[in-house]
Amino acid sequence: MPSTSSLGKLALAATGGALAARGLQRLPQARFAGMSGTSIAAPGAAGWVTDFLNAAYFRRDADQRSTADLRLAFGILTTRWHRAGARRLRAADVAPFHKAFGRDRFVDDADSPRGTLNTRQLREGAARLLGDWFLGAWDDPTRRAYGIAFPEVADREAYLPELRLDHAKLGGITPPQSPAAEQTWHTYPPVLLGDEAAAGRALELLTQPQTWPDYGSSLGRFTPVRSGGLDGQTFEIEVLGEPVGPIPVLLRAYVTVTELLTAGDALDGYTARLNETFARYAPFDPDPLPEGAAPAALIELTTHAGHFLGRARNRLLVFTADGQAWVRAVGNWDPLDWHLDRLYAGMGRYCQHAFWGMGQAHESVLHQLADAVRSDLGGRR
């Protein structure tokens, strides 16, 4: 039988090991690794979840891809999560998905090569999986919110977005803290929204955080995880990378709105200081607010621990100039830790730039927002 002294040493060792494990979990590398996948799916479901998204979008030929289909696929997954009592999707949940979509995955014709799902197949499969009510609800903006279709408006109003936080691993907020001269400062190209009236409509949409999943791109989407409006809202960002192997890479991160300004002295002062900062620390980047432009709104987003850009801040700036309305992203971040620097150099730089408008329209949430604005103002999405 072990002596009291031996038991004491074992207890101390166990305590030390537990504390060491907890310490390791606090390391940036460990926290980042814990941000793989999405909060609505358990690790055991990651394979079939990403394969489903792959079939709906990434595996399809480029000329057959539709960001609306990718948003629909996400909506099917998220609605299934909600209808299952907001428990995380599991490995076993692949069975009802296979029953609803599996036969179509084996079809091999011109508009649906084997292993893919086209728009019709996604919609028909969703009705089989979730019920005939789903399609009408998904197409109805009053019953679609938070990336979920709700049977009735009352169901949408009763929904608690905080349910996603149960498995979010939400860390503390992490604004940049290095000296400004050591940070990276970057202005992304502006995206045209339309005429000056489009600025107001864009702001109306953006201040309804439950609609943000509707602007998801092929690289990712924002989903609010708190009740209430935009000011102080926290978003889960689900980021999709083009597949290197058979399935795309799915990561998540979190940001919170730490400043929300609309036209007025406070916004004028903020944008003036921002321009001055860029003139000093990023003189080769364009001014965030172009000369002669009028700011209409600014949304400041600050990262949480585990974000793939480290300690960072981004701003969505809506402005008007020469009779047109524009939106652009303006970011700054601390020097990246080695593990994030390698990721950023390998794929993050392109994805970050494309996500905020420097790539193709299907990759950019700002282009998707612009499409929604034009659609609401009478154009075609």
UniProtKB/TrEMBL annotation:
Name by which UniProt lists this protein: Uncharacterized protein
Any single biological process term in GO: proteolysis
Keywords: Hydrolase, Protease, Serine protease
InterPro entries in the record: Peptidase_S8_Ser-AS (IPR023828)
Source organism, top-level taxon: Bacteria
MF terms in GO: serine-type peptidase activity
